[in-house]
Write a structure and sequence with these properties.
Layout lengths: L12 H8 L8 H6 L3 H11 L1 H14 L16 H14 L16 H7 L15 H10 L4 H20 L1
Helix pairs in contact: 4-8, 7-8
Amino acid sequence: MLEVPSACSFCNEGSHAKIFGACGFACTFRELLENLDWRSGLALEAHRANQTLQNLQKNLHRWANSPAVLHVSVDMLRGHSGFNRTVGCILDFIGYPVLAPRKRFRALDLEEQAKILPLPRRHATHGEFADAGTMKAHLLHESPWSARFAIVSRLAASILRRQSRE
């Protein structure tokens, strides 16, 4: 979608107009990003992701206390033991038989796969743009979305703490 003029996955009308209005809806998202400094690019991406972030926040609130929803964070999948424990928890949650062989899920474990086929430890664009920590700090503390991120972070942490006790 980065290469299609005026394409904006999951944008609402307002965000779409803010993003592409200045170029008369004739440019691509990539072209816009390539002509911006990192702060402006981050703000543009935040406009693009606005509807997704709103949906995430609404769903998190709606499902926060539902016993029919298992919340899983990406951090829970990191590392071999974290991956195996988390996948085991997901399988238990969906009722996958405990005695059934779970070896087939090892194929999903990137740590395990790296022993067979070494994978690069970083993303292909690593180091080409502003430091990710700086961007994260900006989003969490200086951007118009800081309050929303703080609300979602607190709620997610609360949900994960509650689930770990159940």
